[in-house]
Write a structure and sequence with these properties.
The chain is built from two helices and three strands. It is an alpha+beta fold.
Length: 106
């Protein structure tokens, strides 16, 4: 019975740390860039887009497709950075144990 109580305490502690990490990730902002910094996209730690900055030199009607591609690339760059930071933070809570594929904690 003592082992179960100890395990329950550890689970509760892990849940509290996970909630703290989730709040930290929500406040986190990562910027992705493309086109040599001409397009910048900022995402929060949950992958939600917060800002888009476009250099005025790209705002030409005949270059709309290029601009669209650069926005997508900058968004993917920011998402990749966000996922890396989230994995690092979550692995500190789980003690480095890998999570099953597809399991999301936020």
């Amino acid at each position: 019975m003592k082992d179960i109580m100890g395990m329950m305490g550890k689970i509760k502690e892990m849940q509290e740390r996970m909630q703290a990490v989730q709040a930290e990730l929500e406040a986190l902002e990562c910027e992705g860039q493309s086109g040599g910094g001409l397009v910048k996209v900022t995402l929060n730690g949950k992958g939600e887009m917060r800002r888009v900055a476009i250099d005025p030199s790209l705002l030409k009607p005949d270059e709309a497709e290029i601009l669209e591609d650069l926005i997508v690339a900058a968004s993917q760059d920011a998402k990749s950075k966000t996922e890396t930071i989230a994995q690092d933070k979550l692995s500190s809570v789980t003690g480095g144990l890998p999570l099953p594929p597809g399991m999301k904690l936020f």
